[in-house]
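Ticket #4471: structure output looks truncated?

Reporter: J.K.
Steps to reproduce: submitted the chain below (268 residues) through the standard prediction queue, then opened the result file.
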Amino acid sequence: MTATAQPATLSQDQVEELCAFACKLADAAAEVTLDYFRQPMGVDDKDKGDGFDPVTKADQGAERVIRALIEEHYPDHGIFGEEFGVKAAEGPFEWVLDPVDGTRAFISGLPTWGTLIALRHHGEPVIGVIDQPYLKERYLGWPDGATLNGTPISTRACPSLDKATLSSTDPYLFKDAERARFDTLLQETRLVRYGLDCYAYAVMAAGHMDVVVESGLKPYDMMALIPVIRGAGGCATNWEGEAPGDCGRLVAMGDPTLLGQVLDILKD
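Returned output as attached by the reporter:
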């Protein structure tokens, strides 16, 4: 491929095949996570005393079964998982996995965690699954649409920030200038909800909230969210209006007309 050539797009047959496989991965993960949710379990700390970053056998077991299925069915595909790292791709496809996004919610018995499964094609997230198996809600997104349990979903219209519902996992995750910008944005919106992890993006895609803002994210925290949001009619960028990436700053909107208003506040 030349420097100016664009990667080939996926055919409709490929999209359907890979969406079905992503759902198969979510089914396998759910069999593991539901065995542990709201049950006594051990919790390890990945930070080892420098903060608290919990991990459980549910996180690890769910990622193991997902990785095993990918390696069985698509051995040339890459894998980037939160718990077990990177397997290099032998082609344009890479699966990005967060087996339990919202482990703090998981160990607290709150059903706002989810399994995040994304497929990147030439680095672009093209298929995403946000699966909340306890609530039996599966959000699936691809370039041309998004569904909740197979029913098409769409974001809602909200052309003005003063009518918007905003969400973020925790305001204390924003540091220094980030916190000042977030607080300014907060003052412009009508309502805020905290602590929802990936579930905030899911309900926004289904038309119930308007803006989600985060910082400090890793690719496995973000990639599955993006196809769901975009497929439902929303948009997702970093705080500069560019493709979300290594900076870890994500802003998503159900109504893309809000983008300029939000970026005017958040961008450097």
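Triage note (M.O.): checked the attachment and the full token line is present. The two ends are 35 Å apart (CA to CA).
Status: closed, working as intended.
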